[in-house]
């Protein structure tokens, strides 16, 4: 076996370009598979991190049965409820809840001076900052008094303030224009890591009633408890409260772990699709190995004839070419894994991509298997060459 490996490397040294091109296909295939899985895991980690940042155990009420197949999020979708002020006031009566936050959400152009940025308006009450564990970089957040007065004020996310005022802190006490209405900036939030929150203008929900939210409804309602043991009780009480106005399929009550579990299931399917896409590259690389090895057999026909003439058997020739195919695949797979690791390492400060050990092992063994599968045909052809005809081949 050692002699076969050494002989393979001697041949690779003689044909460097052919060796590089053969391994390149497998390297790209393994790189694609591992990177796609790493990015899928990174997205899953990112969402899990966002949930971990919440200051309380969160329960979210959505319109419609969002866990039903084919359901959609948002007010009025799938025959869902349109939550309003009355629902909010009814939910405030639940003593188990430490936080009750109505949430209106809209993508909209936000302007300041001559700058314009497509961000989000979030209408909520003063509890959103504690519930979502949002900290101010400068200024303050709004209060109950601001909500009752319908104050035309806003707290800006870090990225939004940066886009509009270059330096986020410069946005304090400045004016932003939304839907031709001016709002005074009373606070800037620290960078959160959630793009939607970092590009949001958070306002009292009463302030957005009217031109920004003409229907005076809510996208969802967030409730939170400080004690995790009270989550199930809170869910039951929410359901009982809402059933007085709506049917069971008109709303969904989900805690953050259920939402995360649903997201994880979605990502499991997405990962399988990504692996299938990446596997196409591996198959293409395998076909490349077969073609190159087949050409190599033709090129080395006389060498095979001489080996057979001096005593090499058919299995000896078969193993010689099969060993070369497997080594090329493993080399390509190893380089693909190394490159994927470096890319993930570079992206980790910006995005929590992660390499899964299972993916690494599968990609490595698949690359070796491809060498065997696609190397068998040209190896068998070489082994079956008649010695006399092979020696005479020019």
From TrEMBL:
Keywords, in A-Z order: Cell membrane, Membrane, Transmembrane, Transmembrane helix
Domain (ABC3 transporter permease C-terminal) ranges: 276-387
Transmembrane spans: 20-43, 269-297, 318-347, 353-377
Family annotation (Pfam families): FtsX, MacB_PCD
GO molecular function: transmembrane transporter activity
GO CC terms, sorted: plasma membrane
Keyword Membrane: yes
Main subcellular localisation: membrane
Topology of this chain in the membrane: Multi-pass membrane protein
Domain of life: Bacteria
Keyword Transmembrane helix tagged: yes
Subcellular location: Cell membrane
MacB-like periplasmic core domain boundaries: 19-240
Family indicated by similarity: Belongs to the ABC-4 integral membrane protein family.
Protein name per the record: Multidrug ABC transporter substrate-binding protein
